[in-house]
Design a protein that fits this description.
The structure is a single chain. This protein is mostly helical. The protein has one domain. The protein has 9 helices and 2 strands, in the order ααββααααααα. A two-stranded antiparallel ribbon has the order 1-2. A hairpin with a 2-residue loop joins strand 1 and strand 2. Helix 1 crosses helix 7 and helix 2 crosses helix 9. The longest helix has 18 residues. It starts with a helix and ends with a helix.
């Protein structure tokens, strides 16, 4: 059983994007759909392919810190502020599973690093291509589209 889409948006995705000064309805909807595609909104948070809502692998997490966040100390400090103080030092990759805001920050910044401009929120196939490029190179665009209509469409109607 995963997290309700509206609650994931309200309590995790939106506050994280606001904290990073990167909020937009498009980013919010994209991350919700990415979480739906990657982990069924948290129904399965940890497996061989990666950790957390967005299924980020250990090596990708480490490389992202080394190749991106390490180059921007101010942003790295903001992201590190979302992580647990002691647990992060002992097992940084587990933060992706147990800390939804930290995982969301890493996921969004990975998107931003590869695709600084998202397509318009109405361009579901464009968003699907971003998801495929950033999170699931072997993924099918129709899986993203189905998740979009099922999770994001319903969340937008409820808002």
């Amino acid at each position: 059983m995963g997290i309700a889409a509206s609650e994931l948006c309200q309590h995790v995705i939106r506050p994280t994007l606001l904290y990073l000064d990167r909020h937009s309805p498009c980013a919010e909807s994209f991350l919700l759909c990415a979480a739906a595609c990657q982990s069924a909104l948290g129904s399965a948070l940890d497996d061989q392919s990666g950790h957390g809502l967005y299924r980020i692998a250990d090596l990708r997490h480490q490389m992202f810190w080394d190749q991106h966040l390490a180059l921007d100390p101010e942003l790295a400090s903001r992201v590190r502020g979302l992580a647990s103080q002691h647990a992060f030092l002992a097992a940084p990759h587990i933060e992706l599973t147990v800390n939804l805001r930290y995982a969301t920050a890493i996921a969004w910044l990975m998107v931003e690093a590869q695709r600084p401009d998202l397509p318009e929120v109405e361009d579901i196939m464009g968003m699907a291509q971003v998801w495929q490029q950033v999170f699931q190179p072997q993924g099918r665009l129709r899986d993203f589209s189905r998740a979009w209509h099922h999770y994001v469409g319903k969340a937008q109607q409820a808002a």
